Amino acid sequence: MLNRAVQWTLGLSVAGAVMLSGAVAHAQQKIAIVDIRRAIEETNEGKASIGSLKAEADRKQKELLSKQDELKKLEEDFLKQQSVLQPAAAQKKREELQQKVMQLQEALQRAQQDIGQKEAKVLQPLQEKVVRAIDGLARRDNFAMVLRSDVVLWPQQSPMDITNEVIRKVNEMKAPAPAAPAPGSK
To answer: Are 151 and 12 in contact (CB under 8 A)?
Structure first.
């Protein structure tokens, strides 16, 4: 949270200083704003990738919830039987339950890491396309500066916002052709 606050403050300070000094020195320089997250999420590729990731996350969540329900049932059965079990048997069942709880927690952590890694792998090339689209638009329209919308306090809705144009440009980009195999390789 502190890191985000520092980043926010620095972003605003730098943006404010640049805008003020730029406005005085170069009154005709253009500034644009882009919501990068929205640009990624609303491209055709982003929608497909995020939908696929969400479907996989939902599937894993269902599996984990099923395991959690099984564990609750085992715990309820143990609590019902605890009074009639020998102390050694009760202790053994308690340890088995604790082991299963730890296994469920580990499975949850693995699932979260797996989804996070897949998300990074899938979205990283799309982020690069968004940056290329922003670069192309900035060069074409001679923007002196393109700011992320999350560091701009005001105006939130503005003609300076080029996010929709970035989305259109990314959607128009062709997927890179697969690399040709090196000569002599099979």
So the answer is: yes
Extract the tokens encoding 159: 């003609």
Distance CA 148, CA 150 (A): 5
Q: What is the pLDDT of residues 120-161, one digit of tens each?
A: 998 999 999 999 999 999 999 999 999 998 887 776 667 788
pLDDT digits (tens, 9 = 90+) for 69-110: 999 998 998 888 888 888 888 889 899 999 999 999 999 999
Which two structure tokens, joined as six digits, stand for 61? 């969540």
Work out the end-to-end distance of the chain between its first and last CA atoms, rounded to an integer number of angstroms: 51
Q: How much is the pTM? A: 0.61
Neighbour count for residue 1 (Cβ, 10 Å) = 5
Distance CA 116, CA 142 (A): 36
